[in-house]
Amino acid sequence: MFTLGNFLTLSTFGESHGLAYGGIITNFPAGLEVDFEKVQYQLDRRKPGQSSIVTQRKESDTVVFQSGIFDGKTTGTPIGFIIKNENQKSRDYSHIADAYRPSHADFTYDQKFGLRDYRGGGKSSARETVNWVAAGALARQVLPADVEISAYVSSVGEIFCEKPYQDLDLSKTDESDVRCPDPATAEKMIAKIKEIKKEGNTIGGTIMCVIKNLPAGIGEPVFGKLQAELAKAMLNINAAKGFEYGSGFCGAKMTGKEHNDLFNSDFSTKTNLSGGIQGGISNGMDVYFRVAFKPVATLLRPQESVDRDGNMVTVEGKGRHDACVLPRAVPIVENLAAFVLADLYLINKLRRL
Amino acid sequence: MFTLGNFLTLSTFGESHGLAYGGIITNFPAGLEVDFEKVQYQLDRRKPGQSSIVTQRKESDTVVFQSGIFDGKTTGTPIGFIIKNENQKSRDYSHIADAYRPSHADFTYDQKFGLRDYRGGGKSSARETVNWVAAGALARQVLPADVEISAYVSSVGEIFCEKPYQDLDLSKTDESDVRCPDPATAEKMIAKIKEIKKEGNTIGGTIMCVIKNLPAGIGEPVFGKLQAELAKAMLNINAAKGFEYGSGFCGAKMTGKEHNDLFNSDFSTKTNLSGGIQGGISNGMDVYFRVAFKPVATLLRPQESVDRDGNMVTVEGKGRHDACVLPRAVPIVENLAAFVLADLYLINKLRRL
Amino acid sequence: MFTLGNFLTLSTFGESHGLAYGGIITNFPAGLEVDFEKVQYQLDRRKPGQSSIVTQRKESDTVVFQSGIFDGKTTGTPIGFIIKNENQKSRDYSHIADAYRPSHADFTYDQKFGLRDYRGGGKSSARETVNWVAAGALARQVLPADVEISAYVSSVGEIFCEKPYQDLDLSKTDESDVRCPDPATAEKMIAKIKEIKKEGNTIGGTIMCVIKNLPAGIGEPVFGKLQAELAKAMLNINAAKGFEYGSGFCGAKMTGKEHNDLFNSDFSTKTNLSGGIQGGISNGMDVYFRVAFKPVATLLRPQESVDRDGNMVTVEGKGRHDACVLPRAVPIVENLAAFVLADLYLINKLRRL
Amino acid sequence: MFTLGNFLTLSTFGESHGLAYGGIITNFPAGLEVDFEKVQYQLDRRKPGQSSIVTQRKESDTVVFQSGIFDGKTTGTPIGFIIKNENQKSRDYSHIADAYRPSHADFTYDQKFGLRDYRGGGKSSARETVNWVAAGALARQVLPADVEISAYVSSVGEIFCEKPYQDLDLSKTDESDVRCPDPATAEKMIAKIKEIKKEGNTIGGTIMCVIKNLPAGIGEPVFGKLQAELAKAMLNINAAKGFEYGSGFCGAKMTGKEHNDLFNSDFSTKTNLSGGIQGGISNGMDVYFRVAFKPVATLLRPQESVDRDGNMVTVEGKGRHDACVLPRAVPIVENLAAFVLADLYLINKLRRL
Predict the structure, then answer these.
(1) The domain defined by B9-348 carries CATH number 3.60.150.10
(2) Which annotated residues bind FMN (chains A, B, C, D) (predicted)?
(3) Which residues of B131-258 form beta strands (DSSP E)?
């Protein structure tokens, strides 16, 4: 319950100012020679302080595997891992202990639990995603080697990457600070983020994720459709507001004649408005989806708000915050997708006698 | 695994031309005086043949509860229910046994399972949703009586209901055949669907769902966020291509200053771009979301396609099919949402000592 | 939650005097040619009225599969099944509606749920096991063909079958009405049951179950040990009071030198006090376990008891009840074990890359 | 899947010579003022080196909670905890890397996973139970304060504590090194263990566990019976061979007239052969059960065995091992039972509207 994955599962713990984040991955198959560098590489992509347009906080985000791996190979038993918090100490949070920040989870946690860890957002902090990246980067190694999962920033505010993903070189995504593989668009996005940042404001955007070479057959008919599992994972990311795959919301404007993907004789399809999924199951074509992110709620400028007693107060974000989370969300989307796929990929092996 | 719900769960069975659909609801609390009419009412809203713009197939879709209810009250033990298939007999499906219809699940089922029940789509048939409506309509009775869940058709093709939901009388939704509560827009939608139908074509659209009076505190911090559970449920509906809540994809174009919902002193918010959810937990404001549906893949006109051996064939839908599923999807969205909410509502009762 | 099995799962519904029993089996692999006769055969072994020493109630206990099987083969989608209740009508239960029968679940259901279906025990009726036999008999067909699961009555009251199972011909179990494969012991058991029955009394006993040719590797290290999964299943059977495997409670009297099973060079072991399981995982030797059953609580003679208000009342079983459930419990134990094994067998296929 | 508990769940990780053991507890209610000393006290009861009759290994077994607790109170979010391994370094295990020790899990792990962590038994080490004690000791604090869970050693080899538990002062259990509350029996047990230990041999035994003041209503009708959940937990303990509750295997020798527990007018029962459970649900009387443990497989004397290639080898335990695990298993049984009860206790709160 409330794990990621159905058979291959991830349970996590950790809060912004606790001792550590961490998780347990169960049912990971034995015998995988773990590429630890690939795991740390993904964590490094997510960590703060990588470029001038993201937060300058410093955290090493080093994952230490505690179990389930012996002599470099997975043993088939639960894989525990820990990522220590390094900046969790001393700061004084008493000024926000009673204040509810607008569009944060302060109020809802108090309503739900009757109390909350107010230091840095506690459990509601997006730092939780560090667990998902670690687990996803490991799960990715279970998938066939040719499965490629490539996310990129497809819009920031009103600036869209208009080119279809087929016309982009997705291997170049990380070459721009904003992780948009189209250099001209990337430049505009970066300029926009810098402008917004100067104002102490923040901005939203979208991420496109493309999965190539996924075998046909992945996903389950009912209550386990591939798109539903992906949507569930993505909408657990902090700030995510929407998910669409294939033609998505545009497809809702179309007619069947326009939308149906006709087959070629090799069972590929001439178009791919389906987004590589039919009846909840992959068909061998590219799977692609888009996730919408709202602007970060923490502003580095004063906002009116209320405290626990309903008194009006002024809140103002301090220190180092992202003006736009999109660049750092790219590895989150990718590795979360990898975990979802690895889970369904393993399950699919049991679908035929 | 692959049930709907986490604590209150629904497992289902059934395929288009099997004997029956049905399901088992577990962990339903004891002592509820069941309103059977409300359950059947929701099933009747979903069933075919209700108006000139939906399929004219006749099915009574009568749910028969088999257990878990005694003297009109739930007993706290599993609730089994059955909805018999009435039209499942005799027709000859051999002509499509080997053909793969475009944008259907024929090919992916064969790839996954090595065989499939080709009669009427088998398990991939949208008739599965009859189970969800039955279970959801029952689960709805667990929620506080003032929780209102109202879905309506917000667009058909390019025709959008431009008014915000606050300006609509949602009690009038069922007064139009297309289930759009704005009469002028409804008229245009109906005209469009009739035109499309005449061509043997189909058309997509979107459904908006609004949940009023949901108490604060519903939804779980990680891997059980309210929006993620709703998205997962909605994207399991056949033909669903996207989900967004609150500001959704529009929110991704905004800045934090525009997007943050400032508090009133009674903890309501001045705006509600959050869609009633912060940190995955309801805040007491309206929860609202939108689901995109692609056009139905079955066209009543010939399409080129392939068979299992890769030979080109012509397929053509016969008989009675929906040109637009949106009107019938309205009760599906509502009752699916009801089940998700009832599950998280019960779980929330255990969140504090 | 509260299903049988972890990956291959069984959810069930039904109560003594409801319309039907039934269940849903999920994650059953596609492509199995179902042997329906084997399923019905196991149900027939469990059903009442088979011999003079069990209840003479008549129920046909015919299972009807509703879905998940097409053209005689499993499709990989959920398998729904129904077993109609035939004797559930009209009888007057008002005399026991308020009485609590000794050592029945009447009191505890009322305490838990605040109400109960008092007709024939409602959900607490052992008729629920009909579901388990149906599902188990199907699951058995997933196991390798040479896996043999043989249960028999190893004691009735003080009468024990003293021979070790290796000295018995387990194919002869069903030749005696009491299902003990040792004819001399069977005769004594039958005489004892007849005597007890004449008194309106009942008697307990034990069942031994032997699993031959189970491959090594079945069972999971932590919280999924083979013995734990078997124990859980067996202790869900009505009237079960204990479970032991291998040396069991006798092993607790021994020293390590006596108890350790030394290896042969082919990895078989010279003795098998381990009962074919080490560290929760099968080792290829026979798995065997014993289940203790208390005497049936329903006596065909008056007993003092209390009603809901604490008034003293006299209760007396009427009609047709088993004086000893052991013979009918043999197929329950076998098929329940089959389900547990099939679940762990499938899971084990995913344990190595 | 493969967690302890159904709603309140424990996932664990760790192996004998890994960096740490640890776990995640989910769905723990918010607002509990944690008594950390009670948790550490239970861990101290389990840890090695407490008396002359158990292993003299030194491990501090200090639990460090990583999350889910703030200002001494549970926050309702996942509770992560870590127990570092302190003795895991340096020793040379290459001599046993290829040997299969008799009645250990060496062979079965290799068969299942194709490899294993051979250092100190890896995942199959009983050190895993340190996680269960930590989690159980915390879960115990969720139960009503008057629920008492008291386990004690009821037999060692052939030496049985003949007195019924009602005649023992269970508060005195820890006063004897062997944790048997009957001083005369304890003395004999201790003498026996010392004798066995001198021989490099080991010995089995049984543990009785008594739960007082458990409210009526705990446990679920089907696939969640209280006895089944307890049995599953207990049979996951290393070396456990059997479980019985109430009359257990003795009850299988009795008649219904002898076995039925007649009611008093206050709904207590005159006898309690049921062991406080009817229909899988607690009835308010004492719940009691017994667990059988085989003798430890590691002998401090040479035994013949085989290696991975089937060659005969001699194995001999070295260092510090328990000659009898029973005393240290007492807190394991108690705290495991506490976790099972806390889970079902919380679930029971949702059973009525």
Answers:
(1) yes
(2) 238-239, 279, 294-298, 320
(3) 148-156, 159-160, 205-212, 240-245
